[in-house]
Predict the 3D structure of the following.
Amino acid sequence: MKYEAVIFDLDGVIVSTDEYHYQAWQKTADGEGIYFDRKINDRLRGVSRMESLEIILERAEKSYTEDEKVSMATAKNDLYRELLNNITPADILPGVEEALGKLKAMGIKVAIGSSSRNTPLILKRIGMDKSFDAIADGNDIKNSKPDPEVFLLAAKRLGIAPEKCLVVEDAHAGIDAALAGKMGAFAVGAAIDHPGAQAAAEDMTKVDIEEMVGC
Ligand code: BG6
Ligand code: MG
């Protein structure tokens, strides 16, 4: 097999949290009178909370102090975490559980590599906190995607060389991060048009797992 491990992004790959991120940012931006829409929201995929805020502030009419930025990001996160209370195992994206089952049966290690600092909460809410051999998330890293730090850490925690890891991502920044880490990159959802990915599928139900890991 070409790959010995698969590292999954969380938001948009394992579970659909996009709408909740969007709603929480929209409310935060509205509160400040800053223009925000779904197109801008698309640019936040895979990007850390504070970097997301900087993208939103491109449309702000005044400048904000660091303290003000931290309180805006905190307000967004409080709203987001409230919305996350609605998440249940029913929000696991189609094809994910089947894919994990097949990979495990094939002896392939599975990990999470996510920019989100809410990863532990989300995994618990969908009942998948014990489903992975390793987890690396926004709480563990200094540089968020497109930097490869979170994926390299996941590979290190798995004890598998980066070249033997395949990353599954829905964000352009995430595909860039995988490539920067010398890993394989499999694009799903919003990342399917990324020219650097080795392969792509609309969602996990359309993936031939054996082909994906290079059997
Ligand atoms: C990523 C999302 O997984 O996590 C981004 O795609 C989000 O949209 C980032 O900004 C950070 O998330 P959190 O939960 O730490 O605010
Ligand atoms: Mg994602």
Q: What stands out?
A: The CA atoms of residues 173 and 213 lie 22 Å apart. The domain at 5-16+89-212 is CATH 3.40.50.1000 (Rossmann fold). The mean pLDDT is 96.
